[in-house]
């Protein structure tokens, strides 16, 4: 699947709706300091499910909403729409019913964030899995933020392994294993409780 378009509305410095076409091949983003190049990369991470404020250079998730400027009031919501070319039908089941796949994430002040895929409400987990399985998730090593190279050089082997796992597209499997383990633990404690109840009845 290829990214074909990104649209930002009220996201950080992109207060007015801004649409960028992502063509085949290499895309360069150039501009003076502070014009929003890194904000653009953060928008890409965010729409793919990034939830760590540290990765978004903010204190809380609502910090992605345009905070206002001398001549413009703050906004109440931020929205990013990512359009993917799905003409080769590479999207996983559940997302594979059209030639394009539109993923929208929107955050509203005091109401949290919500996702839509092709106009239908979607769960955060499903959107995160969709990109993690395609090796392009929010933590993808393909998105390199400032300072990340030196962090990687100084990182512990375990953190470096995580980067390789992301690149290999297996991080979604780890997430699923973790969820399965949580369910298993829940089932085991339910069984233990059941044993107690049976013992008391006997
Ligand atoms: P550099 O080349 O220096 O790294 P850049 O082009 O990557 O800069 P960004 O870091 O993406 O620029 O953008 C920084 C700008 O975004 C700053 O002017 C900052 O005030 C603005 N900004 C960040 N968050 C918000 C927000 N929530 N609301 C309004 N403006 C914001």
TrEMBL record:
It is found in: Cytoplasm. ATP binds at residues 32-39. Required for chromosome condensation and partitioning. Homodimer. Contains large globular domains required for ATP hydrolysis at each terminus and a third globular domain forming a flexible hinge near the middle of the molecule. These domains are separated by coiled-coil structures. Belongs to the SMC family. This is Chromosome partition protein Smc. It comes from Neptunicoccus cionae. The gene is smc.
